[in-house]
Amino acid sequence: MLSQANQNSSDRRRFLVAAAAIAVGALSATGSDAFAASPGAGKSAGSVMLRPHGNQNLFRVRVELEVEGNVNLPKNALISRKSELQLPIVTAASLDYEEQLRRKSSSDPTVAMANRFYHVAKSQGSLNEVEQSYTLRDSVRETIIRRDVTPELMYSVDDYFDREELDLLRLPVSSLGVDELLPTTAVSVGSTYSPSNDAVASALCLSSVEATEVVAEVVEITASEAKIHFKGNVEGSYEGVPTTVRTVGKLTFDRRIGACTWLAMAVHETREIGKAEPGFDVSATVKMLRKPMPKPVALTASAQKLNPGNQIPVERLYVDLTSREVGLGVLMDRRWRMMADVPGAAMMRMIDNDRSIAQCDFRPLATLPAGSQWTLEAFEQDIKKTLGEQLSDIVSAEERVSETGLRVLRVTASGAVEDVPIQWILMHFSDDSGRRLLATFTMEAKNASTFAGSDHQLGGSLRLIERKKPVAEAISARSSNDGETRIARLNKSNESPKPQVQSASDL
């Protein structure tokens, strides 16, 4: 306990040093030397509005992120949020992308959605001193970002993200929300204001903000730009998990194009342990540069024509989950996460707003002779024997051939465990070579409506893949390009039956 307290104290001291350094750097930047090249700097004929006007909608954005701290793991996230283990994490990420903005309307410059192409998206770091690196695949570089939900929602135009790619692209600040940190009324040098809860949530990519003490100050206004410093604490949540953010930073607003073009920010975030993800206590620095572009470089014409009024396409929101130990891949609703992957077993869990809905356990079965298949009747009898007295009724049983060419036996059963009504859905997958896999969904009966056909999605998309390979071979396989993407194939099938900042000025 003492060592943990010392560690937390040390983390806080580092953040305070970073915050003080940014503040000192900001003050020095507004001194007389800083104004020498601009006689009108720091002077204002009166109050001015610093609002995005929507005339510039195409940007090249570069982001550098450095993170250091601890990941907090529970013994069992379904029972307690208490941390049982802390793992040190250090990572650095670089992103370079162009994005085309879509505003809500001509009278409301708030960004409703964006088309984005990632030229670079990569990270390098370590978790518990184990090296990790991630790079975005070519098939998911073109993306759509929707901001009619919080936090903002991203999906690929051509393929499906895996979980690591979604985590790679998740940043502590949004280039589409940074303009919302601007004042909503006329200001002059020295004016202070407090961004709204919604504005802070939008900028910091949070689901909600319950309370914020963030205060911003206008420190400089010229004919071409304005500079703003901000700092404060935020109490909010991310996908139902409480989080506390302490932030200090500064931004530059280009008055000529009506957009924020530069941001430097230090963040200390403490997020509680959730049922889907571990908690963490980390410090981070973010450097963001937004440069206006005259025309797109890589964005496709079809992407640029997308309409914010269109419904979010549910079929594009699947995530590609894999188990290398069991040897399976599946496209599922993003509420599903692979929680365990060990030799001989894997488990994924459906979490909705930090509430556990269902669990699915995977287990490889003994291989049958080529051409042999298990009958539906034999599968039912095995289920009855396995569930025993917990079983009340076999609700349904069916067999079919999946879209991936596997033979699927599916049985739905109801019963109770310790007087709690339970529903099971058991699915037996096999191929012509005799390879077999058992998937078992378990949920409380009251969660059946939220579960909403996840078993059908599993049955239609599950594919058998090779089991875990040596690292070098696995990386080679992941990097290979198999030609057209899965979304393209689906469309075809549908056509026919370090966080110590010395100065933000250094960023």
Q: According to CATH, what is the topology of the largest domain?
A: Lipovitellin-phosvitin complex, beta-sheet shell regions
Q: What is the 3D form?
A: elongated
- The tally of domains stands at 2
> How would you classify the helix and strand content by structural class?
alpha+beta
Stretches where pLDDT falls below 50 for ≥5 residues?
A: 1-45, 470-507
> What is the CATH class designation of the largest domain?
Mainly Beta
> Taking Cα atoms only, what radius of gyration do you get, to the nearest Å?
26 Å
CATH architecture of the largest domain: Roll
What can you tell me about this protein's structure?
It comes from Rubripirellula reticaptiva. Residues 1-36 form the signal peptide. Keywords: Signal. This is Secreted protein. With 507 residues, the protein is of the alpha+beta class. The protein has two domains: 2-34 and 48-314, Lipovitellin-phosvitin complex, beta-sheet shell regions (Roll); 317-470, Mog1/PsbP, alpha/beta/alpha sandwich (Protein Transport Mog1p, Chain A, 3-Layer(aba) Sandwich). It is 18% helix and 44% strand. It is built from ten helices and 23 strands. It has helices at residues 2-29, 32-35, 163-169, 197-203, 301-304, 376-387, 448-451, 454-461, 471-479, 486-495, and strands at 58-74, 83-103, 111-127, 130-135, 142-146, 153-156, 192-193, 208-212, 215-221, 225-238, 241-254, 259-271, 279-292, 318-323, 328-333, 336-342, 345-352, 355-365, 391-401, 407-417, 420-430, 436-444, 463-464. Strands 1, 2, 3, 4, 5, 6, 7, 8, 9, 10, 11, 12 and 13 form a 13-stranded antiparallel β-sheet that branches. Strands 16-17-18-22-21-20-19 form a seven-stranded antiparallel β-sheet. β19 (391-401) and β20 (407-417) form a beta hairpin. The protein is elongated, with a radius of gyration of 26 Å. The chain starts with a helix and ends in a 12-residue tail after the last helix. The model is unreliable at 1-45 and 470-507 (pLDDT under 50).
